[in-house]
Amino acid sequence: MTLFLFVVLASVAGIASYVLLSSWRIRRSALRRLDAAGGRVDSPGDRSAARTGRLRRWLSLAGFRRADAAALFVWTCVAAAAAGVVLDLLYGIAARDALVTMVTNVPGGMGEVLGAILGSGGTILLILVALIPLLVVRAARRRRVREVERDLPLVLELFATMAEAGLGFDAALARIVQSQRGNRPLVLELAGFQRDTLAGVPRLAALRRLAERLDVFAVTSFASAVIHAEQVGASLAETLRHQAESLRERRREQALLSAQAMPVKLVFPLVTCFLPGIFLSTLAPVLYQMIRVSTAVLRGTGR
Predict the structure, then answer these.
(1) pLDDT of 64-101, one tens digit each?
(2) Which of 48, 63, 108, 145 has the smallest count of CB within 10 Å of its CB?
(3) Are 213 and 189 in contact (CB under 8 A)?
(4) In the chain, what is the greatest distance between 2 CA atoms, to the nearest angstrom?
(5) Are 22 and 15 in contact (CB under 8 A)?
(6) pTM as predicted
(7) Co-location of 200 and 160 in the same domain
(8) Span 158-191, pLDDT tens digits
(9) Is residue 277 part of a domain?
């Protein structure tokens, strides 16, 4: 067991060192490319990839955009692994032997299975605790995508209505940012897009940056449609209206698919949680009566 814990700690330390070393190499290569190009980077995507590694990109998509987010995540993973090791040791000292001894007396071969599971309970706790930072970031990314996809159709309809009323793109954007709640991811990114345009960044480049920061299919489609409308001179109001209708239709289809998949998803909790209770309530009295009758018959035969 001590050898296993040593291997786990060494693996975590190796992963942390690899991530930090990779980030340092990416930054050094970015500086070299900047010096070779005379202080210019080819595109916003190249500049973002040069300044950040894959880990920081992943954290940025989940909403963690502090300058030290990658280092904090790595050290959080190390701390979680250390906490898992401590829990493993405490479980092994305090509860493992007692629990294994208690369940090994269960008849029917179930005691051996439960004993094996409880014997490796410390390792299971170690893995679960070590995975907590990854699961938190993954859940934050999913929640961010879900909120963006929920807010985007309404924002596009507001854009289309204001464009049909005669407002320009920038004026409509300012109205939408002021009217919506400021804690929503889409509104925050639109405010960042507004700051980019006010700083002198061309609208098309700012739209590409917006799509890159969110990395959501609906936002990428919206940015591509607006860029195409700007380039060919199409009606911006009609483009935004079509985008909003397409997004609402896609959300409706996803809701129908989720509703159709619900019976299949309910099979597992039904079988594992509901049916055992039914069997116990219906068959337990019958089994009890059979045991009593067989016991009485055996006693009578013995006499």
Answers:
(1) 888 888 889 889 999 998 998 888 888 888 877 777 77
(2) 108
(3) yes
(4) 106
(5) no
(6) 0.67
(7) yes
(8) 888 888 888 888 888 888 888 877 688 998 899 9
(9) no
Residue 291, class by beta-carbon neighbours within 10 Å (0-12 exposed, 13-18 middle, 19+ buried)? exposed
Assess if residue 274 is contained within a domain.
no
Residue 102 has pLDDT above 60, yes or no: yes
For residue 179, give the CATH number of its domain.
1.20.81
Q: How many domains does the chain have?
A: 2
Domain shared by 166 and 223, yes or no:
yes
Residue found by looking up tokens 């055996």 in the block: 298
If you write DSSP's letter for every residue of 93-147 in order, what string do you get? Answer: HHTHHHHHHHHTT-TTTHHHHHHHHHHTHHHHHHHHHHTHHHHHHHHHHHHHHHH
Q: How far apart are CA 297 and CA 190, in angstroms?
A: 82
First-residue to last-residue Cα distance in the chain: 56
| DSSP summary character for residue 184 | S
Q: Which structural domain, as residue segments, surrounds residue 229?
A: 143-261
DSSP alpha helix (H) spans, 215-235 = 217-232
Q: CB within 8 A of 105, min separation 6: which ones?
A: 111
> Do 117 and 45 sit in the same domain of this protein?
yes
Least confident of 18-27, 162-171, 251-260: 18-27
CA distance 206 to 188: 14
- The residue with tokens 């998949």 is 261
- 261: tokens are 């998949």
